[in-house]
Design a protein that fits this description.
By secondary structure, the chain is mostly helical. Helix 1 packs antiparallel against helix 2. The chain is about 60% helix and about 0% strand. It is built from two helices and no strands. The longest helix has 26 residues. The protein has one domain.
Length: about 70
């Protein structure tokens, strides 16, 4: 979902050149989202610090559709 969403987003913004850029961005975000998920899973038992903000934007992959 991350890869497709980034391809569509970049293609809308930049035209046909957005396909490879969106693919690269999507692959990078997919890896980043997996690592952030592992961090969230491992840190879940501990109290949330004051002023906590989501690590990634959008917070969830379906946030691209809003």
């Amino acid at each position: 979902m991350e890869i497709i969403n980034n391809i569509v987003k970049e293609t809308k913004a930049q035209g046909a050149i957005g396909v490879p850029i969106g693919l690269a961005t999507g692959l990078g975000m997919a890896v980043t989202r997996e690592l952030a998920g592992v961090y969230e899973f491992l840190s879940a038992p501990f109290p949330v610090p004051a002023g906590f903000q989501p690590i990634l934007t959008p917070e969830y992959p379906w946030g691209y559709f809003e």
